[in-house]
Fold this protein.
Amino acid sequence: MLRVVPAFVLATLATAGLVAQGPSPQPAALTVKGLPAAAPLQVAAMLHGLQLQVQVTLQDGWHLYGRDTGGGQPVQIEIASGSAFAAVGALEAPMDAKGHITGNATLALPLQRVPAGAGLRATMKFMVCDALQCLPPMALELALPAAREKAPSVLLVAIDESERTTRIAAFLAERGFRTDVTTYAKVQQAECDAHDVVLADSPTFGQCRGVMGDVKRFPATASPIVAVGFLGTELLENQKVAMACGYI
């Protein structure tokens, strides 16, 4: 049963647009620090879903290196430990046959969420060169404050705080949800309303004895409810929901 619940939950949250795939459906700009005023390029950074995008605009005649050519230092972007993200692939950099990045170019680094982290901090290292010289290596600090990266919140309602409940909560947290846990006996309308979605869990039928009274008293809430299993069916019925997406 436990293996089925997370897949069902994530599918339902995805339908509601609440699966945590990034800090926000809208791109978020990062601050860029450390670029000398006289540098022959401009740099802007943005977090777009699960991709860090860095826009570089180079003056005519200047270039960066997209790969090691034996010349200047290739561009590198390193995600700092403690961030809410980690790199999951190589940096994508548009370059010509010589390995040069010129003009207006967007570098892209694929990311994944890291449960224990917050915000996003990265270091961009590179050398900028023209036909005659390379300037000293540069290191820029890219940062997105934790306050800009708010994950969806889930209130997990279970019959008790058992190992099953702990595992489901951990599963959600690992996927970037801010997860709180309560029980059918304790749940209040205010805490339901304070979350993006309420997940009403249910173990097997034989484990539901003694909980039905609490299910019938479940508070009405403005937050969407993902109702799972036998107790979920009873809860939907009590909430006067005429149609559900399925039964587990």
About this structure: Confidence is low (pLDDT under 50) at residues 1-8, 14-25.
